Amino acid sequence: MTATVLPFQVIEAPEHWRTVDFISDLHLQEKDPATFKLWQHYLQTTTADAVWILGDLFEVWVGDDAAQHHPFLQQCAAELSHCAAKRHVAFMRGNRDFLVGSEFLKSCGVHDLTDPSVLNFAGQRWLLSHGDEGCLGDVDYQAFRSTVRQPAWQQSFLAKPLAEREDIARQLRMQSQQHKNDPATVYADVDNAWAETALKQSHCTCLLHGHTHRPGDHLLEGSAQLQRRVLSDWDAQSTKPRAEVLRWHASGLVERVNLLDQRTSR
Q1: Which of 81, 105, 167, 186 could disulfide-link 110, Cβ–Cβ 3.0 to 4.6 Å?
Q2: What digits encode the pLDDT tens for the residues 146-163?
Q3: Looking at residue 132, what DSSP letter applies?
Q4: Which sign does the torsion angle of CA 13, 233, 142, 218 carry?
Q5: Alpha-carbon distance 68 to 206, whole Å?
Q6: Cα–Cα distance, 229 to 210 (Å, whole number)
């Protein structure tokens, strides 16, 4: 597949912002209360001027009307609203929650981000993405993504009864879990050429994304200036629990904050 990139929006950070937080891939779900409580505590205690959620906040989202029927999703919406009343909160759709609607975000006071977007802050331009669009090596997923991101497909899916949509989502998650448990499965990483093209088109030096669950900082192959920072996924009840915030300061300092022990790496 070729390294093409979608149009992007540019956001200018207000001058008074001193700290910006980035999180992604929390996969919030009712059966994982530990991760939800950690996220809740984080939203209630962070001192950042802005919180940017770069996709897969939810394990699954089958339509905004689901929140009207599930207390857990209502609690998630309440936490977003409380946080957004105190600071800038922005949300970018991921591969699990691409059906989150703009009206739901608006009702929570959360800003709707396109993927990708550019953030101007601390004298730098960062390109923000969930990251799944750049995993070109996963051909089957890219074909699936191309289908489900079409407005016609989404309109048809959302027109189905809620119970039917939830059943389809359960089947898809079971298939995904079986694929994950297959020892022969190798997950594609973000394509280097795609990342380089995206950065050059957007005039950015850093691509920040999630999706791959491979947190780390990388210089792009063949470049001494272009960088790719990958966000951590969250799972507080795993045998190897993880929950990390990438925090960007107005001074230019970037640190990774481990919420499980509050130690930081720079």
Answers
A1: 105
A2: 999 999 999 999 999 999
A3: G
A4: positive
A5: 39
A6: 9
Rg of the chain (C-alpha set): 18
Give residue-wise pLDDT tens across range 83-133.
999 999 999 999 999 999 999 999 999 999 999 999 999 999 999 999 999
* 3 contacts 207 by C-beta, under 8 angstroms: no
Distance, CA of 168 to CA of 254 (rounded, Å): 40
Residue 198's domain is classified under what CATH number? 3.60.21.10
CB 198, CB 220: distance < 8 Å: no
Please give the Cα distance from 36 to 237 (Å, whole number): 10
Max Cα-Cα span within the chain: 52
Q: At what angle do helices 162-181 and 151-158 cross, to 10 degrees?
A: 120
3, part of any domain:
no
* Helix (H) and strand (E) counts in the chain: 7, 13
Q: Which two tokens stand for residue 88?
A: 């800038």
C-alpha torsion angle, residues 21, 176, 72, 39 (rounded to 10) = -20
**Could you tell me the residue range of the domain that residue 56 belongs to?**
9-265
Q: Is 192 domain-assigned?
A: yes
Q: What is the amino acid identity at position 20?
A: V
The segments of the chain whose pLDDT lies below 70 read 1-6, 179, 181-182, 184-186, 262-266
Number of domains the chain contains: 1
Assess if residue 1 is contained within a domain: no
First-to-final CA distance of the chain: 35
Answer whether residue 2 is part of any domain.
no
Please answer whether residues 230 and 214 qualify as being in contact, where contact means their C-beta atoms are separated by less than 8 angstroms: yes
Q: Which contacts (CB < 8 Å, 24+ apart) does range 169-176 have?
A: 169/60, 169/62, 173/59, 173/60
Considering the entire predicted model, what is its pTM?
A: 0.94
Q: Which single residue is written with the structure tokens 């929006």? A: 9
